[in-house]
C-alpha cells in the first residue's frame, strides 16, 4: 500500500494488526513498513493467510475488516493485491 500521507502507514499497521483475534478467518497476519524509502517503494505490505479461498472471502467481508477498509481507502494513493492458493 502507498499512502497519500506516509504518516498514515503506522496507524494503518496498528489497525490491521488489531484484526488478529477479531476476524476468525485470519490464520496469520504480517504487516511490515517500508524501511528503505526508495522512489519505487510502497509504504506498507500486508500478508495474510487463510485456510482456503472461503476463508479469504470471510476475512474480506468481516465487519471488523470492512471498518478498517473505510479508514484506509481514502488515505491510499495506490494499492496492489495478489491473492493465491498454495
UniProtKB/TrEMBL annotation:
Boundaries of every Stress-response A/B barrel domain copy: 1-84
Pfam families with a match to the protein in the record: Dabb
SUPFAM superfamilies referenced in this protein's UniProt entry, alphabetically: Dimeric alpha+beta barrel
Protein name: Stress-response A/B barrel domain-containing protein
Organism, as annotated: Allocatelliglobosispora scoriae
Lineage: Bacteria, Bacillati, Actinomycetota, Actinomycetes, Micromonosporales
